[in-house]
Amino acid sequence: MYAIIEACGKQYKVSKGDVVFFEKLDGEEGKKVKFDKVVLVSDEGKVEVGTPYVKGAAVEGKVVAHGKAKKIIVFKYKAKKNYRRKQGHRQPYTKVEITSIKVAAEKTEKVEKAENTEKKPAAKTTAKKEA
């Protein structure tokens, strides 16, 4: 089972037990985080796509740590003008472990009922006309 969630302006594919690095989130280490903007849920071949989000679906996780990513160097340069600027940047992140993916029970029951009650082709009857 996996889900695609929208968080921090990006989409992430997650499943239970995954450790995901999000941009800085509010929340202390050890606390639970809930993501309710679920775009897609797939469970054993059954795929549910939201419009834009799946109603009643949620992904829960636990904040493992906060930190900063590896430093990147931003260097501005203009040829023949003696203009050089060097600047470093470390993006803050939050490390989250996904604990569960929940889908609304009503939604799955409706999907199962719809699959079971698919229209079957009507039996053709041939009546002979008496002349």
Could you explain the architecture of this structure?
The chain is mainly β and 131 residues long. It has one domain (2-106). The mean pLDDT is 87. The chain has 1 helix and 10 strands. The relative contact order is 0.23. A 4-stranded antiparallel sheet has the order 2-1-5-6, with no helix packed on it. A 4-stranded antiparallel sheet has the order 3-10-7-4, with no helix packed on it. A two-stranded antiparallel ribbon has the order 8-9. The chain has one helix spanning 105-116; strands at 2-7, 10-15, 19-23, 32-35, 38-43, 46-49, 58-68, 72-78, 83-89, 92-102.
* Number of separate domains: 1
| Main sheet summary | 4 strands, antiparallel
Rg, nearest Å: 26 Å
Overall SS class: mainly beta
Order of SSEs, N→C? EEEEEEEEEEH
Name some characteristics of this structure.
mainly beta; 131 residues; four-stranded antiparallel β-sheet; 10 strands
Protein topology:
Elements lengths: L1 E6 L2 E6 L3 E5 L8 E4 L2 E6 L2 E4 L8 E11 L3 E7 L4 E7 L2 E11 L2 H12 L15
Antiparallel strand pairs: 1-2, 1-5, 3-10, 4-7, 5-6, 7-10, 8-9
Provide a brief overview of the structure.
The protein is mainly beta and 131 residues long.
